[in-house]
Recover the amino acids of this structure.
């Protein structure tokens, strides 16, 4: 049928097909995702702060970017490499403490804090990764959970003098960016409408960087091997590649994203709660990523948006939001493994298929 | 106190702590060994044991927001501790059968990560249901009166009769399950499944029923652990994970699939925890992880474990 139509109106059909092909080619480009992220950080606050029950404060928008960075990194591990970690709170909380301690004792410059946080997370990820990957497959989730809890109890008990124990770490002192630009400084005019203030640029900037880095990793030959491991680990091993090493690298990369996010969170909250190391934090990032949709860059971002909106806004209206969230989580795992983003993507490809006239 | 006395004291305290971990770990270990199934929802069985057990033994106060909004007050059968200990394993055995049939089985053919995620989700739901109905605050699960005092063991000293009761109850339960697995056909299929699940299938043995039964037994033990552990650990919705993590460590240290492994792992974990509690209390909850890390580095398959075929 479609062949007949094509021959009947060749000019028109090739024209739309050409446009669609060009659109597809554009979508495939790496810069498209990055430009998309930039457009997102400009448009998103305008829409989000006008949602129902939202009282318009920007702090939550920044918090969403921070969690989104965490979730993007988590998805590199879960969605792309097929490894489920239940101990990512270690990297989030551990790096948050490192950033806090650094700011209190040495220097509170935000970029340096993020650097210290990231390095801490990488070191922690190396140690825990080596231990947790000793046993294959299903043990990974158990071991990461266990070592995650170990860090929580370490911070609570033996290291209590440094971390502040149950009260959390309160000595965070944030200096101006690069030593001279105050985080609260607001932009004037059109720049003010688009980018708000320096702190917004800091958090949104790191978010865009995280998207760019993740897209680069996923598109690289190295990232292709991550995805191959998720699909068929045995076959990758037969190709002569050291699966264990690739898994460790994926774990460390994912930990580094969590480290950036943890450091930013200390800057944002100016406080580190001991709960940031608790298994519930690890559970939250699992829920965010799975709800949003694993195996894509923007799925986890969608998850972070939905989760934080519900946690901070809807939780006031519905007392049992955690119960509802749990039920929603099970439903998604059971019936829609591709998550929210998977549903969006399904609609998109259906529309695309209809436009081009083939059903594939 | 004499040297012998303090050794016996340490041993009894270790056995009492280990008991609860062992009871929870056996179910985890068997489902891991036979079905390669990581069951976070196993902690929900412990929670069921604690909360339903409290309702049977004494009285459960419903103070959660939902319970208050529908006017649910206190429900208590006040039948006593032993009644709870007898009824709970039956209830959680049944819940375990339901869970195997309707949650685990649909996921046997799905990726490992999906199995873990769905059981984690179910644990969350159970935990939040408890918070919604019973409330999030810590409840008191008092020890039965007959075990409140102390028993004198002659020259060995005087010990809490409650600890001795825990040890006795656990020993009976573990021994019963051990004999069941060693000397029955169901147990034979389970042991064969642990050795090589694929081969059992290829030989044409329908392992569905043995797996179902063993899933139920594991759940029953976890429920019993809840009744026994209720008066020992705190009674809060998060205690499920609080017990699940050490139980996982027991499996890691002891090795998967055997009851002996769970017992050995449980005793080691308990000994480390109690030993540190006595000498360096701030480190007591950290030491067990260090033990697991050492075992992983030296003997990745666990002390009693065999290296698995599919890894």
């Amino acid at each position: 049928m479609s062949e007949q139509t094509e021959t009947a109106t060749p000019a028109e059909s090739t024209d739309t097909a050409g446009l669609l092909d060009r659109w597809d080619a554009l979508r495939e480009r790496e810069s498209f995702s990055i430009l998309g992220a930039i457009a997102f950080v400009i448009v998103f606050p305008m829409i989000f702060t006008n949602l129902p029950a939202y009282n318009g404060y920007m702090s939550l928008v920044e918090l969403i970017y921070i969690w989104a960075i965490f979730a993007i990194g988590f998805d590199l591990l879960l969605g792309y490499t097929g490894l489920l970690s239940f101990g990512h709170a270690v990297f989030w909380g551990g790096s948050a403490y490192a950033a806090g301690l650094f700011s209190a004792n040495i220097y509170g410059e935000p970029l340096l804090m993020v650097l210290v946080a990231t390095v801490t997370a990488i070191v922690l990820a190396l140690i825990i990764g080596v231990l947790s990957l000793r046993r294959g497959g299903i043990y990974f989730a158990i071991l990461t959970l266990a070592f995650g809890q170990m860090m929580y109890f370490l911070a609570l008990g033996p290291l209590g003098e440094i971390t502040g124990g149950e009260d959390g770490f309160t000595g965070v002192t944030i200096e101006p960016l690069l030593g001279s630009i105050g985080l609260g400084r607001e932009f004037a005019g059109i720049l003010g409408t688009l980018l708000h203030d320096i702190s917004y640029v800091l958090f949104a900037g790191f978010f865009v960087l995280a998207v760019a880095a993740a897209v680069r990793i996923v598109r690289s030959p190295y990232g292709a091997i991550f995805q191959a491991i998720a699909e068929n680990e045995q076959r990758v091993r037969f190709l002569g590649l050291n699966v264990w090493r690739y898994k460790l690298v994926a774990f460390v990369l994912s930990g580094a994203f969590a480290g950036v996010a943890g450091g930013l969170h200390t800057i944002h909250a100016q406080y580190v709660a001991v709960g940031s190391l608790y298994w519930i934090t690890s559970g939250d990032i699992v829920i965010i990523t799975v709800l949003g949709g694993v195996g894509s860059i923007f799925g986890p971002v969608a998850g972070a948006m939905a989760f934080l909106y519900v946690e901070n806004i809807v939780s006031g209206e519905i007392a049992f939001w955690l119960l509802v969230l749990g039920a929603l989580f099970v439903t998604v795992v059971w019936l829609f493994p591709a998550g929210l983003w998977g549903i969006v993507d399904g609609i998109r490809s259906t529309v695309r298929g209809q436009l081009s006239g083939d059903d594939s | 106190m004499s040297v012998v006395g303090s050794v016996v004291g340490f041993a009894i305290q270790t056995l009492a702590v280990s008991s609860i971990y062992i009871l929870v770990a056996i179910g985890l270990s068997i489902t891991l060994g036979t079905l390669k199934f990581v069951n976070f929802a196993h902690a929900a069985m412990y929670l069921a044991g604690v909360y339903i057990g409290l309702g049977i033994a004494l009285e459960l106060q419903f103070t959660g927001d939902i319970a208050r909004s529908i006017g649910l007050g206190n429900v208590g059968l006040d039948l006593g501790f032993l009644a709870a200990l007898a009824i709970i394993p039956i209830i959680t055995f049944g819940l375990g059968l339901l869970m195997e049939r309707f949650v685990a089985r649909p996921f046997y053919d799905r990726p490992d990560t999906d199995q873990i995620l769905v059981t984690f989700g179910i644990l969350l739901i159970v935990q939040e249901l408890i918070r919604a109905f019973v409330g999030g605050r810590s409840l008191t699960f008092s020890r039965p009166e007959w075990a409140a005092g102390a028993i004198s063991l002659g020259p060995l000293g005087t010990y809490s009769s409650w600890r001795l009761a825990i040890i006795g109850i656990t020993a009976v339960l573990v021994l019963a399950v051990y004999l069941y697995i060693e000397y029955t056909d169901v147990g034979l299929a389970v042991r064969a499944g642990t050795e090589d699940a694929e081969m059992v299938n290829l030989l044409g043995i329908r392992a569905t029923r043995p797996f179902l039964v063993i899933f139920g037994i594991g759940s029953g033990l976890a429920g019993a652990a809840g009744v026994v552990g209720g008066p020992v650990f705190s009674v809060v919705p998060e205690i499920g994970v609080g017990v699940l993590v050490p139980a996982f460590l027991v499996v890691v240290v002891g090795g998967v699939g055997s009851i002996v492994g769970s017992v050995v792992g449980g005793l080691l974990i308990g000994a480390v925890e109690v030993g540190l509690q006595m000498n360096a209390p701030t480190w007591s909850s950290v030491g067990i992880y260090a033990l697991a890390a050492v075992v992983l580095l030296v003997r990745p398959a666990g002390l009693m474990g065999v290296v698995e075929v599919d890894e």
Summary: The mean pLDDT of chain A is 85. The interface with chain B takes residues 78, 82-84, 86, 131, 134-139, 141-143, 145-147, 149-150, 153-154, 156-158, 160, 279-280, 283, 286, 290, 319-320, 322-323, 325-327, 329-330, 333-334, 337 of chain A (CB under 8 Å).
